[in-house]
Write a structure and sequence with these properties.
The chain is an alpha/beta fold and 225 residues long. 36% of the residues lie in helices and 20% in strands. The radius of gyration is 18 Å and the shape is globular. The protein starts with a helix and ends in a 6-residue tail after the last strand.
């Protein structure tokens, strides 16, 4: 693995990542601790070139990372919009397998195939929906559906990340100062956006929260039978 080369690339672009800078740094730190070739499965691919601040350019970042990892490291990505998969295909290398279609259907087809080949997934990066911050239910439900598709393919090393899933909290503005409402019956801060149902499921599965920033990540997310 050529860690130095990836670090050089990441250092050159990381400030463009804005609110995702710290969490992407933590994602790559996590992957650095996994030995051997790695597989990354992503839902929702890069759809606009150079849009680091808006979307994150996740597919490009993962592509670069696998190029500096062991041979046979790969990225699998899916997007329902053919315009997105076309743009993505023009930006990334052959390390990325790109599929056009619904993410849940794709995961249901891809994962049994990879399991048969004894491939483990190091990272699931779930980003296949544009969140509506006024009403995040549909996007949160879509990611819960993705979790049901991947749950049997999670190993002890797998990291799961959902984009647009920050911690949200009830706030008040008093005397022109904003602060957290802590008094009962205000709800406690919670993971919101696209990740709020997955976070509830993760909690029920005793998963470990790795970070929650603008993105949220968990590991030890293995289904308890
Ligand atoms: C936020 S963008 C992905 C951004 C990308 N991860 C990046 O960092 O640049 C969300 C994408 O999800 C796609 N999408 C929406 N519904 C989907 C579905 N059911 N299956 C797969 N992709 C879907 C949209 O077409 C859109 O391109």
């Amino acid at each position: 693995m050529n860690n130095k080369k990836f670090s050089e690339f990441f250092e050159s672009i990381k400030d463009k990542l804005g609110i995702r800078k710290t969490s992407f740094t933590k994602i790559f730190q996590y992957l650095d601790n996994i030995k051997g070739p790695i597989n990354i499965v992503e839902t929702g691919c890069l759809r606009i070139k150079d849009n680091f601040e808006g979307d994150g350019q996740s597919t490009l970042l993962f592509d670069k990372y696998t190029q500096f990892r062991e041979e046979k490291s790969k990225v699998y990505t899916v997007d329902i919009n053919p315009r997105a998969t076309k743009v993505c295909g023009s930006v990334v290398s052959d390390n990325v397998e790109i599929h056009t279609g619904d993410s849940v259907k794709y995961l249901n087809e891809l994962l049994p195939k990879l399991k048969k080949e004894n491939q483990k997934i190091s990272l699931f990066y779930l980003d296949s929906f544009d969140v509506d911050w006024q009403s995040s239910d549909r996007s949160a439900a879509h990611h819960l559906k993705e979790i049901t598709a991947i749950i049997n393919y999670i190993s002890e090393e797998t990291l799961i990340v959902i984009d647009d899933a920050p911690i949200l909290a009830p706030m008040k503005i008093e005397d022109e100062k904003m602060s957290l409402i802590t008094e009962h019956p205000a709800p406690k801060p919670f993971v919101g956006g696209k990740g709020y149902l997955v976070n509830e499921f993760a909690y029920a599965n005793n998963a470990t929260l790795y970070f929650s920033n603008y993105q949220t990540a968990w590991f030890n997310f293995k289904k308890k039978l």
